[in-house]
User: Fold this.
Amino acid sequence: MRFRFSLLVLAAAVAALPCAAQHADDVESNPFTSSSDVEAGGRMYRSHCAVCHGIEGEGGRGVPLTTGMFRHGGTDRDLYTTISVGIPGTEMPGIFFNGRQMWQLVSFVRSLSEGRAAEQSKGDPQQGSGVYAANGCNGCHRIRGEGGRMGPDLSDVGARRSLGHLQTAILKPNEAVYPQHWMVRAKTDAGKQVAGMRMNEDTFSVQLIDASGSLVSLRKADLAEFEVDRSSAMPAYEGKIQGSDLDNLVAYLASQRLREASDATE
Amino acid sequence: MRRNSILVLAACVAAVATQLGAEVTYERILRAAEEPGNWLTYNGTYQSQHHSPLGQIHRENVSDLELKWVFQARSLEKYEMTPLVVDDVIYVVQMPNDVVALDAMTGRKYWEYTHVLDGKVNVCCGRVNRGLAIHGDTLYMGTIDGKLVALDAKTGGVAFTKQIVDPTGGYSLTHAPLALKDKLILGSAGGEYGIRGFIVALDPRNGDEIWRFNTIPGPGEPGHETWSGDSWKRGGGSIWLTGSYDPDLNLTYWGVGNPAPDWNGDVRLGDNLYTDSVVALDADTGELKWYFQFTPHDEWDWDSVQVPVLVDREWEGRQRKLMLWANRNGFFYVLDRETGEFLRGKNFVKVTWATGLDENGRPIKVPEASPTREGVRVWPAVQGATNWYNPAYSAKTGLFYVSSWEYSSIYHKGDPTYTRGNRYVGSLPQGVWPNTMKDSEEQQGHGAIRALSPTTGDMEWEFRMTGIGESGILSTAGDVLVTGSREGYFLVLDSFTGENLVSLNLGGIVASSPTTFTAQGQQRIAVSSGNSFFVFGLRE
Assistant:
């Protein structure tokens, strides 16, 4: 405790120093929060971050940054660490700016959600659960160990995708089909038909999961026919799920999180 | 007492067993092809053909390869190094900058040098090292914290260390120095950090500088006029791959990296010499004899740090000294290495940033291919048509072999902000690796090993991959090519046809050059995969 307390005192003292820029790596709270800092952070954001997180932080390949909720920690120091180190096991790389620039980037990321209410679904998650069941979504998708495996697991989808992205995925699943969700259709030299979701592929082999849930590995040299279908196997629900049902379903999916994100005050 | 006796005995045995051969003189490296059991310099020989005269392992018996041993690094970072092999001892670099001496026959360790980095270093693309130089009985390594480290090849003892560049300014040393006559030649990485690049010759006795060539010319130096304003001060032009040498011409050839910032050329108007060029320097003085710029005013990050491959062959009726170069920008070039004259150029992948090359080899650019705020799709992609991994040339087949990538990126133009020691790039293109994100059909891309004819520039054959290759290529007198893939495959191909003779999943990215050597007279083939180093030989 004493050690922790001392660190906090030290950090506060450093942050208060006029020469904070020289020690910007070490402080806990952001010493660069002026409007010119936000502006400078915005320039870096547009160059390095917007490709994945969207020009306005609306998300896309990366998570939305407009909610004020940050999965890997919402304190200034957490954001600083996430941006500078990256997130292991994801496509989020570390970005090597100096301390001042990094804090300016943190300021800009904060500005994306400040003054904006966190994106809220119009629907009711509980009602959406019924829509999910009624449309047989669990035939292909799995949530917390329940359901099929031919589609993406949705247990944590609310933490990864924006509301807009979820709605589009329901109505127009072909808008964004990631390589790990492509389908494979093959016929072996012995005449056996095999189909399933492509889990991996290299020059010599392909690994997939078939409709029975079996994990299958095929050697391409043993195949008479082999096709990778890059369109979605999911039917489009445009015109089929709409109105409050759609809002409720989106709300239900958005509520699927394996753990809660931290807000800025945590 | 008994323990002491064993130690004494062990010391005596070790002293005999570890006795190294003669020192590695300049003359030995000059004639490296005459002792193919060794691998005395980063590119095998000064000509950098990555072709070995060893032929014990050949097309007919390569299926009898078996694993002889594995060396696992005490690091989870990937190998990008090519080892040196000197008289049955292999010198590998364990990431980031530890050197380990291994017995070529067993893979057992003689000694290990551990380098403690001097604080945090900023490197663009991993804490990598690509290899060592040996001069006499001293090994030399450039470190990512900017030092030249000299080690006794017999014990790993440190002869000296010398700070060559300042890592706090974004400078780092990642490539193997070139031991040449009584000099070590090397340059600095850091093209994404706004460095001002250079090539230096150092005294192997103490690291003192003998000559320097600025890859970004300053005021009063030829080429300075190709930089607007003071953009030259942070113009990039890094060196991160070892050059070649022609002893008859006494010229050493080096590929130069991208201009900084990478994707916004507005702040550095002009051709930006000598970025994306090959420079031919007098080995004794560092004087520039000629240069050839592959991509003037680059806006796509097309470093020209490929290995200069030196080939003597007939060209249009007469014997000529040629340089073969498959560039990151998508074109395959044949140059006269005496004069730098452009002889032929042809794209070896899909190219949309230029419609071709003019009679002098200068690209005919497509203005619409320059990066924009909104983003513009251009072939090849940002990692290039090929990159730093070495090509190979076989005089027997007359073919040039190169690891090629077919895919595109969306290039954005951003606002670069220079602060010392930090990234200075001006954007980040979309589509850095193929097969990692949803995009159009073309975006998915693929890799291939391609055999190119220097005479026509045409592709003679290709071995197509589902993924991509990040490995160099080794050619041998056994008419095989050895390479690897990002998928983790160790691959052996027929050098005449491209037929796949061996494929074995080693489980990690192959991102260095395979090598071959002998262990007690028996040919070995070595390839690193992930953080492990695999050595194969024929089944006994």
